[in-house]
């Protein structure tokens, strides 16, 4: 059964938002790479891949439910940052915005009585809690360590050193097999 029309339209829009987040995180990673902050660069390269994965999960859901997939254009990412704190502040703002977008998707599904789509979007609600918490803590540490970037790099290496293990509850991504 296809998702509610309004939900499918908003999910297509959200796919664009997720790809835009991927681009923004690539710009953050490149900024940190250029500033020789390898731990922050590595963190944001992984975040970019994660956002791409989210978009592809949404694509797969639409494909699985027989809905049309429309890839919207993605605006250019911001790539000029005055310091090491600015990309993290931008990332937190972005995650808060995505949280609102995901909540709106859940609301649309519920109001339409589209319980399958509501169930699908629940995983993303949980994911956004984690994303906002991560960016909030990174920003706090960055603000405290603005004059000691080595301490910030050490924090990222200690607390965010590797890619998280696969979440067995995560929706399947398009192209994942």
Principal-axis shape equals elongated
Rg from alpha-carbon coordinates:
17 Å
- The figure for the number of domains is 1
How is the biggest beta sheet arranged?
none
Kindly identify the CATH topology: Ferritin
Q: What share of residues is helical?
A: over 70%
The CATH class name reads Mainly Alpha
Number of helices: 5
- Cα-to-Cα separation, first versus last residue: 22 Å
CATH homologous superfamily heading: Ferritin, core subunit, four-helix bundle
Helical/strand content category:
mainly alpha
Number of strands: 0
What's the mean pLDDT score?
95
Low-confidence stretches: none
The proportion of strand residues reads under 5%
CATH architecture: Up-down Bundle
Order of helices and strands: HHHHH
Description:
The protein is mostly helical and 177 residues long. Helices cover 70% and strands 0% of the residues. The protein has a single domain (5-159), classed as Ferritin, core subunit, four-helix bundle (Ferritin), CATH 1.20.1260.10. The chain has helices at residues 5-34, 38-64, 86-111, 115-144, 149-159. α3 runs antiparallel to α4 (115-144).
Topology:
Elements: H1 5-34, H2 38-64, H3 86-111, H4 115-144, H5 149-159
Helix pairs in contact: 1-2, 1-3, 2-5, 3-4
